[in-house]
Amino acid sequence: MLTVTDPARRPQPAPFLLQQRAALLTNLPLTTEQLAELFGYLAPRLAMQGCDHSLGHTRCFAAAQGLRFEPLRQFLGQHDGTCDCAVLARVEARYATIL
Ligand SMILES: [Zn+2]
């Protein structure tokens, strides 16, 4: 007899969510930890200084982390993260489910 704690009866993640997660993790130019740190880095700076429609803060973060900026810029651009506030608004929204 199956009980509610039987592993076979636990809900499994839907396959499309796993595919989506795998797609988001493909070709990441930084670790997911660094990506989460980037969002944490941008939020207070944008709150204090606003966005100047560049990736200036993202560039500073990349330099501080020893990351190459160009692959990061291209990656963020693929997710419509064309300036610092767009990175926070659009890229973070997409990655929120996996970070
Ligand atoms: Zn902006």
What's the structural blueprint in terms of helices and strands?
Blueprint lengths: L14 H11 L6 H18 L6 H10 L3 H10 L5 H12 L4
Helix pairs in contact: 2-3, 2-5
The chain binds zinc ion.
Zinc ion (ZN) binds next to α5.
Count every beta strand, where a strand is a DSSP E run of 2 or more residues: 0
Distance between the termini: 37 Å
The helix fraction, in percent, is 55-70%
Overall geometric form: elongated
Q: Which distinct ligands sit in these coordinates?
A: zinc ion
- The proportion of strand residues reads under 5%
The total of helices stands at 5
From N to C, what is the helix and strand string? HHHHH
The major beta sheet can be summarized as: none
Description:
- This protein is mostly helical and 99 residues long.
- It has a domain at 30-95.
- Helix content is 62%, strand content 0%.
- It is built from 5 helices and no strands.
- It has helices at residues 15-25, 32-49, 56-65, 69-78, 84-95.
- The relative contact order is 0.16.
- The model has no long low-confidence stretch (mean pLDDT 90).
- It binds zinc ion (ZN).
- Zinc ion (ZN) binds next to helix 5.
- InterPro entries: DUF2695.
- This is DUF2695 domain-containing protein.
